[in-house]
Amino acid sequence: MSASDESGTTHFGYREVPRGQKQKLVGEVFSSVAGRYDLMNDLMSLGIHRVWKRYFVATAQVKRGDRVLDLAGGTGDIAALLRDRVGESGELVLGDINGQMLRVGRDRMTDRGQVRGFRYVQCNAETLPFPDASFDLVTIGFGLRNVTDKDAALREMLRVLKVGGQARVLEFSEVRADWFKPLYDFHSFNVLPRLGRLFAGDADSYRYLAESIRRHPAQDELRTMMEAAGFARARYRNLSGGIVAIHDGWKA
Predict the structure, then answer these.
(1) Which parts of the sequence bind S-adenosyl-L-methionine (predicted)?
(2) I need a labelling partner for 193 at 20 to 30 A (CA). Which of 72, 89, 202, 249 fits?
(3) Is there a binding annotation on residue 110?
């Protein structure tokens, strides 16, 4: 057990807060940025997040007729791509702990005429409201770092997977090239909050999001966490030099 667990605190960006408060604080961040979530991702990734998401879905273990759970589904970008993969005979459950984000995603899918085959569930990744062995694939994109108890979320992802099913995590990670780290830090902590204030009127939320990336487990640590949760063949693949990584695990 870590020191933060023993003291009843956890990190919210670079701040230590009571564990029970993190969910509320994260909720306030995403309620603030829900209507500008795509803008947020564009600012954080210089627009490359759209390429990462397409690759994330294109290389997933999923086929027509599958049942898929997309956690931290936000405004539905990944869910929409997955819907094309499962086809009319499949089902896509978009889950998010934040009701405002979920409404944005539902409204966006409706505006696109994508209604059939979607379900929307407000849920906490740490305690999923689904039976064991419910899904062929579980994904979480840019959401795991905001979960208070990541180990519990990983165990829940494994629980709701069918045997042979795949879990995929797409998340900002640890940049590998030493020469690039100062440039990345400057963008994260100097440019990003200013862009957030300019375009979204909210510098603090963008500063938290940059800090949360630095507090998220690095690639090898997260792979070890997935193994400890019970996933078989846990592995990762870096994209864009480790700015993000895709982690995979299977239910044996």
Answers:
(1) 75, 96, 124-125
(2) 72
(3) no
Backbone angles phi, psi at 148, to 5 degrees: -65, -50
Reported as a pLDDT band with limits 50, 70 and 90, residue 137 is: very high
| Segment of 49-53, 117-121, 158-162, 187-191 carrying the highest mean pLDDT | 158-162
Question: Is the CB of residue 36 less than 8 Å from the CB of residue 174?
Answer: no
Cα of 20 vs its chain's centroid, Å: 20
Separation of alpha carbons 228 and 248, rounded Å: 14
pTM here? 0.88
Domain ranges within the chain, ordered by starting residue: 23-176+207-250
pLDDT recorded at residue 197: 83
Tally of CB atoms within 10 A around 173: 26
Q: How far apart are CA 171 and CA 241, in angstroms?
A: 13
User: Any binding-site annotation on 124?
Assistant: yes
96 annotated to a ligand binding site: yes
Q: Which tokens belong to 153?
A: 């979320």
Helix orientation angle between 19-33 and 203-215, rounded to the nearest 10 degrees: 130
CATH architecture of 23-176+207-250: 3-Layer(aba) Sandwich (3.40)
Query: How many Cβ atoms sit within 10 Å of the Cβ of residue 34?
Result: 20
Residue 75 known to bind ligand: yes
